[in-house]
Amino acid sequence: MMSKNDGEIRFGNPTELHGTKVQIPYLTTEKNSFKRMDDEDKQQETQSPTMSPLASPPSSPPHYQRVSLSHGYSKLRSSAEQMHPAPYEARQPLVQPEGSSSGGPGTKPLRHQASLIRSFSVERELQDNSSYPDEPWRITEEQREYYVNQFRSLQPDPSSFISGSVAKNFFTKSKLSIPELSYIWELSDADCDGALTLPEFCAAFHLIVARKNGYPLPEGLPPTLQPEYLQAAFPKPKWDCQLFDSYSESLPANQQPRDLNRMEKTSVKDMADLPVPTQDVTSDDKQALKSTINEALSKDVSEDPATSKDSNSLKARPRSRSYSSTSIEEAMKRGEDPPTPPPRPQKTHSRASSLDLNKVFQPSVPATKSGLLPPPPALPPRPCPSQSEQVSEAELLPQLSRAPSQAAESSPAKKDVPYSQPPSKPIRRKFRPENQATENQEPSTAASGPASAATMKPHPTVQKQSSKQKKAIQTAIRKNKEANAVLARLNSELQQQLKEVHQERIALENQLEQLRPVTVL
Amino acid sequence: MAVCIAVIAKENYPLYIRSTPTENELRFHYMVHTSLDVVDEKISAMGKALVDQRELYLGLLYPTEDYKVYGYVTNSKVKFVMVVDSSNTALRDNEIRSMFRKLHNSYTDVMCNPFYNPGDRIQSSGSVSLSRAFDNMVTSMMIQVC
């Protein structure tokens, strides 16, 4: 019994002593002395719990109120000390029922009771920090389950985001102060996108729980709460898989490998389905398509939480992109070693590109080495698809010619290509004989195997891939056109408003002038 | 390294202003305030041109004897003003641009926080800061006062 209280004491103040007999008054004074949070809220909470220890504190967040359902709770109460009414008035209304299992870190009896409690209600898991006494920042399985359930209640799709406003409303129910919630958000929203994925949400929730239980907020996100860690440590539960497979557009929040598998399937299907495009893509189909695929993919790669989580510090902004890019790039990179990626302009904070995309494209560079240059999403600027086709072809040709050469050389070729966009046609003609010349000399190395696009073998597959890429690009183009249309409409409306305002201004100025002679004598 | 950095809202009230502690902190506040006129002048210089055509970086707003003032406007008319020591000749335009870009990024991160209401002051209050990352970033850009 004492250990439990010790746990509680420890919870509130780790420096507190353990087994003292002066527990009840000690606890109450201890807890009352912690004025870290909004005292008024806490006081409200403290008063209500004392009235009905078995009932859930009415002032606690609604989702915590499920505690009242836990009848097992009453069992606990019976087994728990009568001291618990006292601990109730803490700023830890959540802790009370726990009493026994309150996250008292590090005492075995606590753990026993923790296990008891676990069996009773899900909400109790909130307090169950006792499994890892020295790591209050570690999320236990039960806690994780609870967080995930909460996530689902807010957002049925587990692999998608919770928007900022929804999360804000939800977390505000926890009655923490706004600055603290804001700080917790800052810590947990690793990619600073204004939305929470499942790992981010779990981290935030856990921080809130910890804070409510009295732990001071950390300076930085603890390693056990990092999104990558959470993704790795807690594989997706079963119910995710089905939803996961059914989603083709939503971003995968967890486990990129699974994403890749799925996306490879879809990409393969697409490739099989796509008819050969009728556009002006000739023998360079493969490269053109690959380039267009990469282009579309780059446009598609939105703030892929998987990739962004993997690179925790990234600020991936674009959301309009699908994740399908990663699968293709992964598939393509398998047989080839990554050459040095071409330099990409730093588009900070733009939705068109991000460090994510830079990383995303690095694996795809091997594919380009075989003759494709994946243009970064924001550049080069592509005024129209036809021009882009020519450009891509031009780019491909230099690639082709250098494919047999080493990787290092191919990267400078890619670098040169963007600059050579204007003289695309001359380059093309120039490189054609080179291509034919190099064709004969090309050793069929593994890396340059697909690169020897001049050879007929890869053509069928290339065409399939290219057609698929074309389709992807076309869809991307369509989407962009729609977006453009919407924006153009908006622009015209705003322009009209501007005109009206101007007219008003002119009218007012006229009035002013008319009045002026009157005032000036 | 800047001597003073200020973030000013669309309605021309300060959201965040911070200067290296010297005796004349008010002087920097005054300089920032007067620079707002120059900023408005530069913005309106575009006339009826669309906003996109206007560059975000405004450049040197005006030089004084000891300091130079640089300006930057976002598309939502939030202004960043930076006061730089004139004696710091090593500071080139590109560096100023990159500093503004970093500022803009950090500011956007603050905006993304749903608990931040646009128009609120970007505070660093007590132990829990509303924008710790923003503060740290600004600190890194300010002059190191020995």
Automatic annotation (TrEMBL), chain B:
Signal peptide segment: none
GO biological process: endoplasmic reticulum to Golgi vesicle-mediated transport
Gene3D superfamilies cross-referenced by the UniProt entry: 3.30.450.70
Compartmental location: Cytoplasm, Perinuclear region; Endoplasmic reticulum; Golgi apparatus
Keyword presence, Cytoplasm: yes
Family matches, as Pfam families: Sedlin_N (PF04628)
GO cellular component: endoplasmic reticulum; Golgi apparatus; perinuclear region of cytoplasm
Protein name: Trafficking protein particle complex subunit 2-like protein
Record keywords: Cytoplasm, Endoplasmic reticulum, ER-Golgi transport, Golgi apparatus, Transport
